[in-house]
Amino acid sequence: MLIKDNDIVTDEWTVLRLHGGDAADRIAVPAGKVIVPLPVWNCQYEALQGRTELGLWLAGFDRAEDIPDAVHRFPVIAIDFHKYTDGRGYTLAYRLRKQMGFRGELRAMGDILRDQLFFLKRVGFDTFDVRADKDANDAMKGFNDFSLSYQASVDTDAPLFKRVTRGVAA
Amino acid sequence: MYRYDRFDHQLVAERVAQFRDQVCRRLSGELKEDEFRVLRLQNGVYMQVHAYMMRIAAPYGLVSAAQMRMFAHIARKYDRGYGHFTTRQNIQFNWLKLQDTPDILADLATVEAHAIQTSGSCIRSITSDEFAGVAPDEIVDPRPFAEILRQWSTFHPEFAFLPRKFKVSITGATEDRAAIEVNDIGLQVVKNAQGEVGFRVLVGGGLGRTPVIGTEIDAFVPWQHLLTYVESIVRVYNEFGRRDNLYKARIKILVKAIGIDEFRRRVNEEWVLSKNGPNTLTQAELDRVAAHFSAPHYADLREGDAEVAVLRRENKAFANWFKRNVKPHKVAGYAAVELSLKRTGVAPGDATAEQMAAAADLADRYSFGELRISHMQNLVLADVRQSDLIELWEETKVHGFATPNIGLLTDIICCPGGDFCTLANARSITLAKAVDERFDDIDYLQDIGEIDLNISGCVNACAHHHVGHIGILGVDKSGEEWYQVSIGGSKGSPAAIGKIIGRSFHFAQIPEVVERLLQVYVRERFADERFIDTVRRIGIEPFVEHVYATPVQEEGSLLLPAYDLIQQGTPYDVPYYSPRF
User: Fold this and answer.
1) Cβ of B156 under 8 Å from any chain A Cβ?
2) pTM for this predicted structure
3) pLDDT recorded at residue B339
4) Which superfamily does CATH assign the domain made up of B142-289 to?
5) Please, which residues have CB within 8 angstroms of residue B43's CB and are 6 or more apart in sequence?
6) Cα separation of B113 and B125, whole Å?
7) pLDDT band for position B560 (50/70/90)?
8) Other C-beta atoms within 10 Å of A132: how many?
9) How far is CA B327 from each of CA B107, B294, B323, rounded to the nearest angstrom?
10) Domains and CATH numbers, chain A
11) How close, in Å, is residue A18 to chain B by CA atoms?
12) Average pLDDT of the residues in A67-86
């Protein structure tokens, strides 16, 4: 189940993952809407570049400089959190949105839990593939944990002190 | 001090509600411990040996009398009537029940306090000089910048899951009392030749199992760029810091691995993109925050007080207290006063609820209703009239704050150690007590003079043993507690890592080892030379030679230490205990 625009929607995409013996240059990319890992895109670039309905997913250890120049060609980019405590994906998302100007769907997947959703949304994720054993309806409550924030990020262009008139010393 | 506006209040209230719900989900079993651990840590809640511990933030060490009274209330209502002030200028309570922690946060919110990011792999509560705003050697008051950093780092969406904890310290004085060289980021507020304010920025300092002195990454970052620059550093760290090994995950390891030049290059490459961007500070915002720290209404007084001068001559106890516990103030006729939390028989930094309430009253009556927590784990009344010193001294005696030992051997920095902490290899509080008892002669202590003794119960170095003039580290050797001794460390001006003197000792040998180190100092020192200066001048060899010259006897009374806390057993019927029990 996928959270999108504060709603639960059916996921139209299939995520291709490399398992044990799979080689990035030989694994078959199925037809239809598929999100492929970065190594598959890199190895099978020739064959894949003509496909319009193709998504890309990045792991936490993927660096901004590894991201293809063709980033804008993907309707969806997913970032995989193998463990929710691995915070690299937040910076990766920030870079994609703020520094590379990616405007497509930015999806958080993997170990995605309710208590991270507020932060994930702030750095630019707009779809959330909540971990299968959790209730996505319940998880959505996480978006409302806070109604304001101090810093500028992807969701807010200015820090609080530039957005509102703040209190002064008595 | 900084007072919340409605936005600060709202955020803290929402945090309380969020944590209440998280605790509820944990108690119902909906959240597993592995999912809950990070959530509770980011609210300062640890699962310790006997119970839950909560670390409450006192941002940059500043506390109002109302907050101090609330700490007393928490101690009475939820704990066992006392609390522990920490080296990062916070306070922690050791005997809590998990289900009470949301109520504690709600109580704290009523006095504009919280426990946000006092633990966890995130940007921690920021520390500063306990004499900020009053120190004669201050160039720029660091507190407005500390508060601006506090707000920026609070719930920063990108940095809630860093590779490891991230500590920032800031000073605006000539003498570094904030240990900026041993923080992940150390900031020194300076003025350039044009008189403009900016920051000398250090990066990659830290203690723990790999002690490193921070390296200068930029000599002058103009104040407007404070947030964008610090954000660039943390972003590079978040991306490149190691996550495969907990012990190699601090920023200091990254800086060492790629070198300061390469690290600086990456930070600058990042900074170019955000410099002058939205997070750039404005004069209006700095002025707004700085107004919260404007000087209190000082009376127009003359420097010095005749009665104080007389009593210093006539009363040795007062003279000792004045010498050690009274500090200079930049305003004529005022002084800063340290309330010692280091009494023989009491864990360093511990204070009872009665003491906290008394300290709050003293602050109201003598110091504009404010206190500071020092990194030495004492309390400070920063704005006391010199003409009030005698009266204040009498009162501090009544409340057990008057031990005239600030900066002396028994002003020990000590972590909770094996008596409380699940990480410890050895006890530290109990050892501090043994050292206290051995050296309880105030004349001898005064003669030895300034010396930092730091005792950590494990390599995590919560008591900063590496930078103690004498540092003691608890180590585990096949299940037994041993202690490694180092000398020559210094926490600042300049910072240095101590050198280990040789093989480790048993618990019961340590007081004698300390005594032998002091014997060498007394033998070798020049007039008025501090212990650390003697060590720097003659090196560690003469100390090593003397300590190991003859076998160090174990002190009989320490051989079977009463393990009081453990004998008391687990106090609560709560099904979430430390794995140790």
Assistant:
1) yes
2) 0.94
3) 98
4) Sulfite Reductase Hemoprotein, domain 1 (3.30.413.10)
5) B15, B19, B54, B101, B105, B115, B116, B118
6) 12
7) low
8) 7
9) 33, 21, 8
10) 2-163 (3.40.50)
11) 21
12) 93
